[in-house]
Amino acid sequence: MANNWPEWLPIRSELSELTPYGAPQMPDLVALNTNENPFELPKEVVDEILAELPKVLSNLNRYPDRDAILLREKLAGYINSQSGTSFNSENIWAANGSNEILQTLMLACGGRGALGFVPSYSVHPLIAKVTGVNWNAASRASDFTLDISLAINEIHKIKPGLTFITTPNNPTGTILKLGEIAELAKAASEVNGLLVVDEAYAEFSTQSSAVTLISKYPNLVVVRTMSKAFAFAGARVGYLIGDLKVVAACLVARLPYHLSSLTQASAQVALSKADLLQAEVKLLISERERVCAELIGYGFNVVPSQANFMMFSRFTGSAGKVWQDLVDHGILIRDIGIPGYLRVTIGTPKENDQFLAAIASHKP
Ligand SMILES: *Cc1c(COP(=O)(O)O)cnc(C)c1O
Question: What is the pLDDT of residue 3?
Answer without folding.
Answer: 67
